[in-house]
Write a structure and sequence with these properties.
elongated; Ribosomal protein L11, N-terminal domain; Arc Repressor Mutant, subunit A; 141 residues
């Protein structure tokens, strides 16, 4: 017999750094999910990723208090900020540039994000990443 779905939730947790403190603990606890079990499973799955990289995670939880999780790749903005060596995007992106990235770096980011992007090929994924860069005030050369 199939498990009865109780709901889904989305969290953004740093890779390898899930712990029961807020915001993870309360978000899971109020839905009846075993917090320590989630933290151990999440940290085990993300141990090969860069520590501290924000990982969007979709958690599907069931009425029997079990859960499954899908860990996605870090946001394109995270990769772009890292490639451009900036702390944050521009406050006025159309008028201000905070850094530059090369087309090769954009391609590398698009390849890393490909499984989570809504694109058919690498060129489409690059356009999505270019749009993110433009909206952050990062120039592509």
């Amino acid at each position: 017999m199939a498990k009865k779905l109780a709901g889904t939730m989305k969290l953004q947790v740093p890779a390898g750094q899930a712990n029961p403190s807020p915001p993870v603990g309360p978000a899971l606890g109020q839905r009846g999910i075993n917090i320590m079990e989630f933290c151990k499973a999440f940290n085990a799955k993300t141990q090969d990723m860069e520590p501290g990289a924000p990982c969007p995670t979709v958690i599907t939880y069931y009425q029997d208090k079990s859960f499954t999780m899908e860990i996605k790749t870090p946001p394109a903005a995270y990769y772009l900020k890292k490639a451009a060596k900036v702390k944050s995007g521009a406050s006025t992106p159309s008028r201000q540039t905070v850094g530059t990235v090369t087309v090769a770096q954009v391609r590398e980011i698009a390849e890393a994000k490909m499984r989570d992007l809504n694109a058919n090929d690498i060129e489409g994924a690059m356009k999505i990443v270019l749009g993110s860069a433009r909206s952050m005030g990062i120039e592509v050369k």
